[in-house]
Design a protein that fits this description.
The protein has 139 residues and is of the alpha/beta class. The chain has helices spanning 19-22, 27-40, 53-61, 81-89, 128-138, and strands spanning 2-7, 44-49, 68-72, 94-98, 120-123. It has a single domain (2-138), classed as Dehydroquinase, class II (Rossmann fold, 3-Layer(aba) Sandwich).
């Protein structure tokens, strides 16, 4: 079983986003931290980031159902029915992560169309959320 950590649009720009919302850790540093945790816990992990809806869908479509997904769809969470459908087809464990607490931000962020097809959602716990999601997958 492998965990695929998928990040959507603008998550590659983490270090340039509002630090009050996203903290100061950049994408590469975040990947390193998750990878270290996975190595320490004997978890096979890979990472995929894309700013393009279709590329994320293509990636999800290729995953075997005995793998697991930790996905931060970025803004796609709020409106991409196509990513939602791709996630619905994938039968492995799926956890949606948001670095920020989307429930205390703008109204449009309080709804996720992708969350409904995931096992659960972690929002507002910073990049620790990805590791908590991995912990859940292993449990
Ligand atoms: C985000 C929240 C989304 O609303 C936003 O569009 C992002 C990041 C988060 O991790 O908090 O790009 O998914």
């Amino acid at each position: 079983m492998k965990i695929h950590v998928i990040n959507g649009p603008n998550l590659n720009m983490l270090s340039k986003r509002d630090p009050n919302i996203y903290g100061t850790t950049g994408y590469e540093e975040m990947v390193k931290r998750i990878k270290n945790w996975c190595d320490e816990n004997g978890v096979d992990v890979d990472f995929f980031q894309s700013n393009h809806e279709g590329d994320i869908i293509d990636y999800i479509q290729k995953l075997p159902n005995d793998d697991a997904v930790v996905i931060n769809p970025g803004a796609f969470a709020h409106y991409s029915y196509a990513i939602r459908d791709a996630l619905e087809i994938f039968k492995g464990i799926k956890v949606e992560v948001h670095i920020s607490n989307v429930f205390k931000r703008e109204e449009f962020r309080t709804h996720s169309v992708t969350a409904a097809v995931c096992n659960g959602v972690i929002s507002g716990l910073g990049i620790e959320g990805y590791i908590l999601a991995a912990q859940f997958i292993l449990s």
